[in-house]
User: Which sequence fits this backbone?
């Protein structure tokens, strides 16, 4: 009986990885169609992807926007989680709904609503506008992850530190943040992956100078679908996996 949960877990993992593995398989096709190779495998479309400056620039922008979005989202999620979890004031419910609202708005509606604001602020066509929007999309996830780690044990340790004479900043820097490192790493990784794969809102907001990999992939998929799209998908999945590994390895363990 003890083997059933393990087998079920591996089955679920295989089901989640199946689309990614199939996409990677298609990326080695020697033909011009989105079909997996049946005989000879080819790196033709990987070479085309690497030689196309539009794709390489999109990869760099995707990494930059995702990393910055993760940082902004986590930085905003920590004080927001403290305000909702620890503070005693009447506006907590309104703040909670506001923080979770980006997850409930359809991407198309959010993109159409944010676009005029970015134009007025002079941020359309600037990476900062895309970073702020991606950080907003990832904020609900980062907030929920950080909030679940604000336990009573952490509150007791913070109270003990204040009782020993530490001021507010010393408690935050020496007690709270080191113990929250796994939560911050998980939140950052989650927002990073969401940003790398975000397509719908980016289609509304990206200009030719701020296109990410999903934004470049969408028109290609509509007008000239070739295995280079499978290469782009495989690269995007690889970037997300690398970001996850780096984030967990660097920040996944609480400081001593």
Assistant:
């Amino acid at each position: 009986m003890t083997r059933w949960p393990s087998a079920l877990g591996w089955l679920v993992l295989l089901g989640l990885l199946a689309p990614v593995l199939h996409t990677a398989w298609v990326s080695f096709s020697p033909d011009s169609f989105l079909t997996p190779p049946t005989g000879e495998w080819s790196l033709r479309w990987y070479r085309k992807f690497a030689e196309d400056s539009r794709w390489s620039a999109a990869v760099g922008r995707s990494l930059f926007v995702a990393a910055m979005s993760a940082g902004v989202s986590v930085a905003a999620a920590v004080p927001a989680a403290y305000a909702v979890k620890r503070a005693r004031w009447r506006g907590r419910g309104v703040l909670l709904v506001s923080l979770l609202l980006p997850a409930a708005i359809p991407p198309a509606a959010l993109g159409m609503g944010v676009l005029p604001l970015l134009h007025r602020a002079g941020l359309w066509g600037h990476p900062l506008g895309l970073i702020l929007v991606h950080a907003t999309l990832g904020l609900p996830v980062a907030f929920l992850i950080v909030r679940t780690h604000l336990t009573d044990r952490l509150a007791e340790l913070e109270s003990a530190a204040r009782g020993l004479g530490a001021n507010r900043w010393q408690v935050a820097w020496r007690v709270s943040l080191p113990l929250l490192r796994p939560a911050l790493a998980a939140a950052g990784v989650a927002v990073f992956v969401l940003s790398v794969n975000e397509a719908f809102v980016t289609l509304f907001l990206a200009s030719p100078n701020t296109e990410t990999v999903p934004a470049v992939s969408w028109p290609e998929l509509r007008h000239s679908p070739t295995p280079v799209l499978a290469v782009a998908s495989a690269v995007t999945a690889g970037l997300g996996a690398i970001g996850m590994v780096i984030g967990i390895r660097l920040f996944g363990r609480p400081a001593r």
